[in-house]
Amino acid sequence: MNLSWEGEAEDARAAAAAAAEHDELVAHTTGEVIRLGNEFAEIMVRRVDTRNGARLLIESPKSGQWVSLCPLELEALTWQNTETFSAMIGHPFGPLVAAEATNPEEDR
Amino acid sequence: MTDQSGTLSDVRRGMIPAHIYNDREIFELERERVFGRAWLFVAHESEIAKPGDYVVRRVLDDSFIVTRDEKGEIRAHFNMCLHRGMQVCRAEMGNASHFRCPYHGWSYRNDGRIVGLPFHQEAYGGEAGFKRKGQRLLPAPNLDTYNGMIFISLDPEAPPLVDFLGDFRFYLDFYTKQSPSGIELRGPQRWRVKANWKIGAENFAGDMYHTPQTHTSVVEIGLFREPKAEKRKDGATYWAGNGGGTTYKLPPGGFDERTRYVGYPQVMVDRMKTTFSQAQQQVIGEDGFMISAASVFPNLSFVHNWPRVADSDDVLPFISVRQWQPISENETEVLSWFAVDAEAPEEYKALSYKAYLMCFGSTGMFEQDDVENWVSLTNTAAGSMARRLKLNSRMGILEDDTEVVPALTPEQFHGPGVAHTGYGEYNQRELLNRWADYLEQPAKSATALEVGAPAETAEAVQA
């Protein structure tokens, strides 16, 4: 008997795509991997080069979650205060701002 | 609960019912009336120097996160998640802008404010079901600092720390402020001994009498320049405010010669002269006394000594801060820190640390000598015969309570409080008198905080 759920194939495709993207980024690591942690979190940071520029890949080995940030996004971090991070930490397991559903109507 | 009034009046006479060093009922009273009320040392600012730094420290069974928040303010949060009571921080030390409870993921800023409950909306219906705004980890009822030493009190109505310490601050400065930068702490080493917490506190407060006997071997191996431990009777013991300690008598000379004699380099001596008050300098320079061990009621002690650190006649001082953290009536966790003037030369700091390790801390020779006695005393105090014995703690006074040797005059001793030379148990009696004062006063009831209740209510609960 096979267990399955609605949208299973779509989830599998999304996960595979994300894993492929991640592997691609890791394959282009430059320099040392930085690891830091405290009793609440452990994190790996690496510089990854793309054909046209560099990004910072930040990963949580425990959850497998990762994000790759461009220099402008990183600069935006420098404008933040603790409240921004409190809001992110206080809303765990998901993004603070939900991704907008693509509305074909708006693209016209 | 046994009526302890007889025990306390015996203690006030200097006759100590032996069982107080291993008695469950006494310990429960201490938990409520001494440790529930007095100002207790938890950390030094140098241990949490930067924003986000924290250490986890205990007051008996209560765990506190002592932290410097992002704005630089020092705080002590009761280390219990507001949700189900899990310890929020379990590492002994760290640096974090936020703490996250491992049980359900509730998160807090390091200033104690709650920032997140997973699924707040879905699980509680948002603010309507759980009022998140304004909720914070329970702060220690009282917190204050002196020379970077962080103290808390579980009593919201505790008198100000400055009044609690009183004139003992004069002596505390010798240990904690030899320069404008104060001290930095390394440690603590922690270990447990099967001994009652009061014994160490009494010993450090004033027991110069045990040195020639208990610490014979330390003198025999030539760790100290003075060949005779009996010299301790030439020193003075002093009691001021809520603490007291011992001193050594120094050879003739002025402030410079005498501080250099114990091994301080001139550069540190010069800073002491601009930092210590005139009276503080007179205690050393004119009266000829150098501070050694001391205790602050109830369970904080200090030691300052100057062993040989190499194969020569050169000695070098060290300072240690220590706490006798009660585990039970017959077990104590000792926390031992190395302390050093933050402005001291690096080479001095390294040698001073070596001097500390030789004498105190888990490897210290004094430590081994002392604990053997304290464990034995505690074991013996548990038996039925100990309840028939009142130990004599009246050294230094005659039957009519007059002093064997009169107290030093203000011209002989420029520090505050009362000081005596010769062997005596003045300070041990003072410490236990404070203990009796606290044990006599019933504790007030405390208020309870209802977490996240939409209409905040606090109801009195019997403490």
Automatic annotation (TrEMBL), chain A:
Task: Report the superkingdom from the record.
Answer: Bacteria
Q: What is this protein called?
A: Dihydrodiol dehydrogenase
Automatic annotation (TrEMBL), chain B:
Q: Which residues form the signal peptide?
A: none
Keyword NAD, does the record have it?
A: yes
Question: What is an example of a GO molecular function annotated in this UniProt entry?
Answer: dioxygenase activity
Q: Which Gene3D superfamilies match?
A: Naphthalene 1,2-dioxygenase Alpha Subunit, Chain A, domain 1, Rieske [2Fe-2S] iron-sulphur domain
Positions of the Rieske domain? 40-152
Give one Pfam hit by family name.
Rieske
InterPro entries, alphabetized: ARHD_Rieske_2Fe_2S, RHO_NdoB-like_C, Rieske_2Fe-2S, Rieske_2Fe-2S_sf, Rieske_N, Ring_hydroxy_dOase_asu_C_dom, Rng_hydr_dOase-A
Q: Which UniProt keywords apply?
A: 2Fe-2S, Aromatic hydrocarbons catabolism, Dioxygenase, Iron, Iron-sulfur, Metal-binding, NAD, Oxidoreductase
Q: Which family does it belong to?
A: Belongs to the bacterial ring-hydroxylating dioxygenase alpha subunit family.
Xref: PANTHER family: 3-PHENYLPROPIONATE_CINNAMIC ACID DIOXYGENASE SUBUNIT ALPHA, CHOLINE MONOOXYGENASE, CHLOROPLASTIC
Can you name this protein? Rieske 2Fe-2S domain-containing protein
